[in-house]
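Tokens for chain A. Residues wanted.
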């Protein structure tokens, strides 16, 4: 498959948004300890950055589902990512001073024990394990079935996050419905994985034609709805209410889809391809390492004391810069580059 530099560009944008999400979260979870203005600003950053994780799943689906099954490649990929997960779990366990052997091995079965952001590794490994079955399912889907999948997934996964809080908080009626539908709802990230494949295939076949302005407007409106509802709910409940910020929210699905199409579906020339390719190759390593720098900074500075309008972008750039330097060095070390980043 010919390299798509638009995907490389998208990866670079997304890793910056990942860092923004993690920094802004430090403000959001302290709702009662910070001013409303600080909460509002950090929530604004967070709401417009929520597309980062869904789009990483969509990129993976776009690139992998259409691959031919290769037994050696299949097992090599899974083993590689398991090794990377174990190594980074060890690194974070040591840094977090949870190095007791029993505690560490138990933590490997809990995606949030060593370091919260490593949950993504558990999910992506699971998708890689299931990949041959996902590939066969998707390759045998007609366009009608693809459309039906997107509609059902959006309704049962995306809207399920919305209707309960709307009824509970606005109508004051207690509602709690749990009915996880296999494939369509039970694992929302599988939906993003398949959605990325479907949209990318249609982009390649020139089947999608939506104006840039429309896509930008959809992204802005979807993110603003997420922001507004979260702000309203949090103020009303007097704690950070994050249901609308979940990655499976319908508005996150819509916002992610619009940016995916905006970046990948339009005809524009990518300049400095070698630079874009290089920085794109660092994004996975940046994801793995950036929390080390954020944790160290928060050990010495209580960042909620500072204005998020400056702290979030400045700290994001500092952490990004430090992560790039470290991963660039690690990638030059033989053997280390294959098992750590």
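Reply:
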């Amino acid at each position: 498959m010919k390299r798509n530099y638009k995907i490389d560009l998208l990866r670079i944008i997304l890793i910056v948004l990942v860092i923004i999400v993690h920094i802004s979260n430090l403000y959001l979870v302290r709702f009662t300890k910070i001013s409303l203005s600080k909460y509002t600003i950090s929530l604004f950053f967070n709401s417009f950055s929520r597309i980062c994780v869904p789009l990483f799943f969509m990129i993976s689906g776009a690139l992998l589902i259409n691959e031919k099954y290769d037994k050696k490649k299949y097992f090599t990929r899974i083993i590689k990512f398991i090794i990377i997960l174990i190594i980074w779990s060890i690194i974070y366990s040591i840094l977090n001073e949870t190095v007791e052997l029993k505690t560490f091995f138990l933590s490997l079965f809990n995606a949030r024990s060593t370091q919260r952001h490593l949950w993504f590794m558990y999910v992506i490994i699971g998708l890689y394990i299931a990949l041959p079955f996902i590939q066969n399912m998707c390759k045998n889907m007609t366009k009608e079935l693809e459309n039906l999948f997107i509609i059902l997934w959006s309704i049962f996964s995306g809207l399920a996050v919305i209707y309960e809080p709307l009824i509970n908080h606005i109508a004051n009626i207690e509602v709690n419905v749990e009915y996880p539908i296999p494939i369509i709802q039970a694992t929302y990230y599988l939906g993003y994985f398949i959605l990325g494949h479907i949209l990318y295939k249609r982009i390649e076949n020139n089947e999608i034609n939506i104006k840039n302005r429309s896509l930008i407007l959809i992204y802005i409106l979807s993110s603003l709805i997420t922001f507004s509802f979260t702000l309203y709910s949090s103020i009303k409940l007097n704690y950070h209410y994050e249901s609308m910020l979940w990655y499976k929210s319908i508005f996150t699905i819509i916002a992610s889809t619009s940016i995916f199409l905006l970046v990948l579906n339009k005809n524009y020339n990518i300049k400095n391809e070698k630079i874009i390719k290089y920085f794109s190759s660092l994004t996975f390593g940046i994801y793995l390492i950036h929390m080390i720098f954020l944790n160290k900074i928060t050990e010495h500075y209580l960042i909620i004391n500072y204005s998020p309008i400056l702290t979030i972008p400045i700290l994001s750039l500092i952490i990004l810069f430090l992560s790039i330097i470290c991963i660039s060095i690690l990638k030059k070390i033989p053997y280390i580059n294959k098992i750590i980043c």
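The chain is about 70% helix and 0% strand. The mean pLDDT is 89.
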